[in-house]
């Protein structure tokens, strides 16, 4: 199921809870909550008073208006989940807050996080408006979730409406951006028109849930960019026609010389070349080309490699480093470089071979 479809429902679920079994309260009886404090021990006058320890004595400086017994919320606290790349939380902060550190050098980090918030809200049909540009403070429109009952004739049993503030914080160097989420509006109305207030614990849980949805959106955007970059590299033209330093026709490969040199045996074994000798100092392979024979079984199973448009015989592959690329010159048995036209006629096959895409 699409994460965007269920995110608001999960937030509302954090507020409404389960309708049949409450997970807020501890299980068992709560008789202890109504017990009176035991009277002090009366010591007869002719006996010595025993020694008392006050380690566990509870003084009167406590919150007498807090929940007792069944009203005590025993749920574990909600946590911010820093699942996005280079995200982190501050344990000292009681806010729904997370920090993001710069990962993409070509993108403004604050704008990137802001766009993730906009995209997350847009998936729920919610907009983001500016409250204070100088303070980087923004506010969402209302999130609305209607709980319907009935099958043929449905009716709204309960409506939950929420809106949030989003406070950005940027370090002076611009390489770290924080976002704080605060629930600023909440309405829960049943079919009778009765409203329910949200308590502090549920408020915190809703804020944490909303922040985690934003972190997940940031993580999604990072993954999408990573996928796009991988596709770009996969489709990148690594081989082109050019010249070596002597002006001879050559294939120019966007690969470092050492890496290409070590990978050339893969090309030779796959495309019908046998290595007879090599001169590493001159970066030259001496090979014999024999056009591979293709059987009907190779055709059926797709095991055939494209054939190189060369006559059977002896050849030399000379590699030469040119800046960040490598020039590959092919010489015949008379040590004459193949012409540009010949290289052009073989380009489709050699482009595939020298990029090693079919060898991965």
UniProtKB/TrEMBL annotation:
<dbReference type="Pfam" id="PF06804">
    <property type="entry name" value="Lipoprotein_18"/>
</dbReference>
<protein>
    <submittedName>
        <fullName>Outer membrane protein assembly factor BamC</fullName>
    </submittedName>
</protein>
<dbReference type="InterPro" id="IPR010653">
    <property type="entry name" value="NlpB/DapX"/>
</dbReference>
<dbReference type="InterPro" id="IPR042268">
    <property type="entry name" value="BamC_C"/>
</dbReference>
<keyword id="KW-0175">Coiled coil</keyword>
<feature type="coiled-coil region">
    <location>
        <begin position="208"/>
        <end position="235"/>
    </location>
</feature>
């Amino acid at each position: 199921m699409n994460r965007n479809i269920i995110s608001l429902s999960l937030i509302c679920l954090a507020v409404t809870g389960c309708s049949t079994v409450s997970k807020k309260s501890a299980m068992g009886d709560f008789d202890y909550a109504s017990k009176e404090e035991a009277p002090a021990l009366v010591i007869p006058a002719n006996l010595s008073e025993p020694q008392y320890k006050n380690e566990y004595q509870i003084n009167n400086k406590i919150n007498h208006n807090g929940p007792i017994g069944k009203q005590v919320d025993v749920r574990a606290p909600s946590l911010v989940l820093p699942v996005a790349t280079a995200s982190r939380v501050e344990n000292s902060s009681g806010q729904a807050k997370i920090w993001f550190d710069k990962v993409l050098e070509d993108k403004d980090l604050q704008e990137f996080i802001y766009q993730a918030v906009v995209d997350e809200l847009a998936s729920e049909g919610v907009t983001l408006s500016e409250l204070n540009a100088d303070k980087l403070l923004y506010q969402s429109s209302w999130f609305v979730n209607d709980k319907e009952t009935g099958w043929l004739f449905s009716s709204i049993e309960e409506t939950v409406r929420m809106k949030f503030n989003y406070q950005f914080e940027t370090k002076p160097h611009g390489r770290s951006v924080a976002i704080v989420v605060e629930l600023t509006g909440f309405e829960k109305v049943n079919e009778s028109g009765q409203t329910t207030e949200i308590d502090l614990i549920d408020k915190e849980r809703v804020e944490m849930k909303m922040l985690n949805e934003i972190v997940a959106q940031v993580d999604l955007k990072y993954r999408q960019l990573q996928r796009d970059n991988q596709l770009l590299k996969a489709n990148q033209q690594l081989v082109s026609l050019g010249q070596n330093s002597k002006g001879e026709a050559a294939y120019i490969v966007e690969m470092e010389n050492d890496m290409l040199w070590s990978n050339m045996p893969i090309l030779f074994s796959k495309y019908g070349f046998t290595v007879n000798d090599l001169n590493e100092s001159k970066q030259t392979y001496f090979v014999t080309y024999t056009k591979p024979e293709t059987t009907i079984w190779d055709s059926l199973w797709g095991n055939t490699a494209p054939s190189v448009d060369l006559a059977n015989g002896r050849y030399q592959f000379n590699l030469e480093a040119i800046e960040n690329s490598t020039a590959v010159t092919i010489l015949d048995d008379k040590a004459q470089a193949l012409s540009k036209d010949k290289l052009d006629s073989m380009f489709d096959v050699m482009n595939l071979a020298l990029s090693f895409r079919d060898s991965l």
